[in-house]
Amino acid sequence: MAQGNQPAQHTTISDTKAAQSAKTGATKTATKAAARAPKPAKTAASKRPTAAKSVTAAAAAKPKRTTPSPVFLSRLKSHKAELERLFMSLYGERETATEDFSALLGAMAEAYAERPADLKRLDKSREADPDWYKRGDMFGMTMYTDLFAGDLKKLADKIPYLKEQKLTYLHLMPLLQMPRPNNDGGYAVEDFDTVDPKLGTNEDLANLAKKLRRAGISLCIDFVMNHTASTHRWAKAAQAGDPEYQDYYFCFDDRTMPDKYEEHVPQVFPNTAPGNFTWNEQMGKWVMTQFYPFQWDLNYRNPKVLVAMLSSVMHLANLGVEVFRIDAVPYIWKELGTDCRNLPQVHTIVRMLRIILECVCPAVVLKGEVVMAPKELAAYFGTREAPECHMLYNVSVMVNLWSALASRDVRLLKTQIDKLDALPENCWFVNYLRCHDDVGWGLDEDVEHELGIDPLKHKEYLYHFYEGAVLGGWSMGELYNYDEATRDARNCGTTASFCGIEKAVITHDKPLLETSIRRDLLMHQTMAFLRGFPMLNCGDEIGQLNGWEYKDDADRVEDSRNLHRSKFDWDKAALRKKPGTLQNRLWKGMEGLREMRHDPCFAPDAWVSTWDTSNDAVLAVVRKVDGAVLIGLFSFSEHEQHVHLNPGADEQGTAVVREPLDADLAPYEARFVRL
Question: Where does the Glycosyl hydrolase family 13 catalytic domain lie (predicted)?
Fold first, then answer.
């Protein structure tokens, strides 16, 4: 593997040659790949509708010349110099750098040529409305296809249920071809171009995306950038001894290099998957596996890896995917002597991906999964001049919301919100309470020390609280990845069960049920009021409880995250229309969230800030746009609370709260005040 990444002297491809490079690059790439690529067995699942193919997938097709569109060439012209500079900063030392860059341009031209006409029309409208995903009426949901409906065709039949909630965004959990049983919930991918046969076909995905678009819903799927499954065709070729495909990964004959990496690289799962390397007996080499042994880390030092992966993104975009959640993106570049996290080359690659999308399919946006310290987040948005992700998962606020609920103390939450609100206006977040993953207690330890909070004791209190092991607590959940050495742990469970609804149902405690419903709604109301747009976890709209039955499944019992990955309960969903039921009350509460967000103060350019309440149990958030002011007051206590807001101004000195404001709040009350 090449270990250097310094920019090298190279000849820039001129604008006059760029079009020719784009025209011929795909043909050259396909021809060369045809001679090299291992031939996977043909299956029905490998068939797909006409769309942009990845470099490796294109090998099986007859090379064809594509005349680039004037629209594509115009977009490329405005970005080409930067794209080439970034590419060469990573690969300029390679003898094949110019040829590899030409292959990338060719893949882009081919993807644009094969982009369906209706998606090109969507591109045009989104170019005219670049802030479409920031509008106040954005309302999302995430779900597993199989757990919600069974497969993609059946999910398409459930679109009326989604429309009933006025969703504008649907994130489907991993649905690309995966091995079984070891697939990490779909995050071990066998084929980045093909839908998993158990969920349907590429045609089913394209049809679903089209139906969702007609319903006003943008489709989001995961794209796993850091690794492939150990059963991916590249990994199989590597295991068979092909040195070219061994260079698609990090493979070593002995422990010399792995041990050097291990000196600096933290373990992701120290208990369930210790270490960062796995010995492969068939290959006779150590391979880097930062997550699980069946997930092989990709070597982005190899430009063929980059071109192939970006080509797959374009292919999926041509099936109608409008949002990509790029998974584990901070890990994708490895540098010996570092922790292999958040390196500058990561941002180079994400910036290149953003440029490629703007040239080929500008309707598509990127959502980054960056589970890192809050100080690392801003960099993944890039800059106004060189943007990267359009939006990020708001992991830090999610964690702080649950911390505030358990501790009845909003100080950490307020501080974190202030830090995020201080980011430039191009920084946008998807706010949520629960998703497919665990709750990891990554709180800001520096702030905790400033507030007199012991970080370790606080973390231990939180994970014991949400597993239901604290006297007087209401939560029901489980621990995930407890580390006895560091005393670190995470939590699993649904929103309703974390808020006490499950305990109330089991114990037939009506007062507890009333209080727990108020907690649940408070958490959703707070989340939906913040900068960004809200996303529900499927089932939260009807108060779905933990799925303890996972313990009876031998293939699922080892992963406690399956506690909140249970089949959607359609019988319970039917109760959403019956007044007075738990399901009806939560359903109506979610309707209230959408109605709240139609207020003008939820415009993309609204000024958002917290406000001092003189009460550590109550959070105040202020929204202001064009002179209109809306204040949200959120009590995280089971007792009545009094708040006092002093007059104050925004950053420009414009008065926001003109007169002192006092209010008395009921337990877990959310109140909205128009000034």
Answer: 142-594
